[in-house]
């Protein structure tokens, strides 16, 4: 039988057979977060920032696949599986809550897909290769709180926080850092994100007569201890975690939030920072774009973390493209390697520098303190 296929056709088939089935020109990034549910006030800004993401990176089109996990770790895992198994993404951003982000670790490791957590997490050494944390590590932020307490003469601090990993991270950091500053911790009270009352816990805190109270909570549920402490007559300093810094918290807490102090990233008060601050330009540029889309005064740290994750991916893509096409294991591995190459990337919150040994990648330039005054956050200088 005579061969009727011409050379051009045979060449086409050769290319098809030699090209990995999953290779493509399009870069795909999966994003999962708490866009509904009790923690939606935290998650929605991430989604709003994602709507401003570029449609191209390094000349390649980008598909940003956004899914809601409603703060449910099981849903976060299902979304991660969809990203890796069905969409064959090149990287995962999320989740926006620590329990969800942690639950996704195994999917990222098993599929060898870089995961940039959008919530502060502690990454086990055995899983570090594929997991990067974008928000500041909790000890970095709590250190700012403890330093301020010590400077103000606080000797005893009461603690109340969530029953989940966010409450644990803040309490553990406080336990680790406070004793070195001569500060004792008088309580370790906990509550659930959906609880309607913390009166019993607050009474226990007040019974120890603390000089200050630290609240390890986030989003709108962080308001409850602040309100209850003030309603119970407590007039001492109230410190909140960086997960509480949002417009929604100020609106829900009203007068009870006045004078409260919290650590946060420089983005929140970028216009009040010195011009020499290393993240000021990136933060101002982002705030301008974000508030142009979502309205004046809508800036928040959570949207900034999403933007910084995008900046990190964008900076890593060019080098990864030299190793493989999007959609391939070679590209994902090269993307991971490019992320941890030790290059400094100025974001809205930090000057990030990941290495093979450090996937948290931030230092003390990534945190400041803010105080609530007249219903708004303001820079609290040292």
Automatic annotation (TrEMBL):
Pfam families: Peripla_BP_6 (PF13458). It comes from the Bacteria. Residues 26-375 form the Leucine-binding protein domain. InterPro entries: BCAA_transport (IPR051010), Leu-bd (IPR028081), Peripla_BP_I (IPR028082). Keywords: Amino-acid transport, Signal, Transport. GO terms for biological process: amino acid transport. Belongs to the leucine-binding protein family. This is Leucine-binding protein domain-containing protein. It comes from Bradyrhizobium ivorense.
